[in-house]
């Protein structure tokens, strides 16, 4: 197999050839067709996530074809098109696993972090954490659904049901998917971007946003909720200033710069700030069934697998309008 491997944080990924993996009991061997590049991969490479299992193959937006099933697998057959998301394993016995919040499991394993992921041409994965990909998506188009889509979907759910006017901060891969789902649900979108980022603002308007502008600017209406995808802590008080009493500010990223102090007034009125962590398998089943019905269309930019470092650099520099996807 061929893979781009993280051997040390803060260093570029290295191209390696290794013997092909074999599926163990309960696992599937997947011929990878595409793997999305997520901001979490940047945080991993930059050393902003604790205790990565180095060396590790990053990538948790994996789309491919089942090439072989291990002993005891009855969820899939050879030839099925499947996706592998961030949630790679949970313990099944902790209080969170037993109460429907396996995303908060005390002893989880995450794809492309503790478990080798999709920056490769083949991988093995636990079949219980793989999902059929529905719809007429190409493999590359489907890849961003696996994290940007899933985490975006969970973030949207956490914003509450009583949301007519929804703010979205940071208009990248997750936002462009969430905006389509939210529009489908009849909500109005207010997109906040880096000051002066006109291409991102135009992108948001093209996806049906009611308004797009610079973060820090007051939108034309009071918002019912806001989701922050940009890893910028200063956006938390900025978003709190835009939401109504009882409104919810959802932080959708795994890592954020420090949140500056802010006056209690902007939290007062039962406003809520909350994070979203990981995903449950139910989120995956629900969202992957919903996406083709919306239909969610993904905007992507493909890179050959050996150019994974260039794709990460483009994401870091903010030079992408859609999602970067690696093709082996
Ligand atoms: Zn658990
Ligand atoms: Zn991700």
CATH architecture of the largest domain: Alpha-Beta Complex
Portion of residues in beta strands equals 25-35%
So, the CATH homologous superfamily of the largest domain?
A: Medium-chain alcohol dehydrogenases, catalytic domain
The residue-averaged pLDDT reads 96
Q: What is the H-and-E element order?
A: EEEHEEEEEEHHEHEHEEHEEHEHE
Number of domains: 2
Regarding CATH, which class of the largest domain? Answer: Alpha Beta
Q: What's the Cα radius of gyration? A: 19 Å
Low-confidence stretches: none
Largest sheet: 7 strands, mixed
CATH topology of the largest domain: Quinone Oxidoreductase, Chain A, domain 1
The residue fraction in helices comes out at 10-25%
Bound molecules: zinc ion
What would you call the quaternary organization? Answer: single chain
Describe the structure.
This protein has 328 residues and is of the alpha/beta class. It has two domains: 194 residues, Medium-chain alcohol dehydrogenases, catalytic domain (Quinone Oxidoreductase, Chain A, domain 1, Alpha-Beta Complex); 126 residues, NAD(P)-binding Rossmann-like Domain (Rossmann fold, 3-Layer(aba) Sandwich). It is built from eight helices and 17 strands. Strands 3, 4, 5, 8, 9, 16 and 17 form a seven-stranded mixed sheet that branches. The protein has a six-stranded parallel sheet with strand order 12-11-10-13-14-15. Helix 6 links the parallel strand 13 and strand 14. Helix 3 crosses helix 7. The model has no long low-confidence stretch (mean pLDDT 96). The structure holds zinc ion (2 copies).
């Amino acid at each position: 197999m061929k893979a781009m491997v993280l051997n040390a944080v803060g260093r570029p990924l290295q191209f390696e050839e290794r013997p092909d993996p074999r599926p163990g009991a309960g696992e599937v061997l997947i011929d990878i067709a595409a793997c999305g590049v997520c901001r979490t991969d940047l945080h991993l490479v930059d050393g902003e996530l604790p205790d990565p299992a180095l060396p590790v193959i990053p990538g948790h937006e994996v789309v491919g074809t089942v090439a072989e099933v291990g002993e005891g697998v009855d969820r899939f057959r050879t030839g099925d098109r499947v996706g592998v998301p961030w949630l790679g394993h949970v313990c099944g016995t902790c209080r969170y696993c037993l109460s429907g919040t396996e995303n908060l499991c005390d002893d989880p394993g995450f794809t492309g972090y503790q478990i080798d992921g999709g920056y490769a041409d083949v991988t093995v994965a636990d079949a219980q954490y793989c999902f059929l990909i529905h719809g007429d998506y190409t493999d590359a188009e489907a890849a961003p659904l696996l994290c940007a889509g899933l985490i975006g979907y969970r973030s949207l759910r956490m914003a509450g049901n009583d949301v007519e006017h929804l703010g979205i901060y940071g208009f990248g891969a997750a936002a462009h998917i969430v905006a389509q789902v939210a529009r489908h649900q009849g909500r109005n979108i207010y997109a906040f971007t880096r000051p002066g980022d006109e291409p991102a603002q135009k992108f948001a308007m093209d996806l049906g946003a009611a308004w797009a502008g610079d973060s820090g600017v007051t939108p034309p209406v009071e918002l019912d909720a806001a989701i922050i995808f940009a890893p910028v802590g200063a956006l938390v008080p900025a978003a709190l200033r835009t939401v109504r009493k009882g409104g919810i500010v959802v932080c959708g990223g795994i890592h954020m710069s420090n949140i500056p102090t802010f006056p209690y007034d902007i939290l007062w009125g039962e406003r809520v700030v909350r994070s979203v962590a990981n995903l449950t398998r139910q989120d995956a089943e629900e969202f992957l069934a919903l996406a083709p019905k919306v239909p969610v269309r993904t905007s992507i930019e493909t890179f050959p697998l050996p150019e994974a470092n260039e794709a990460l650099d483009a994401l870091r520099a903010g030079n992408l309008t859609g999602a970067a996807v690696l093709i082996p």
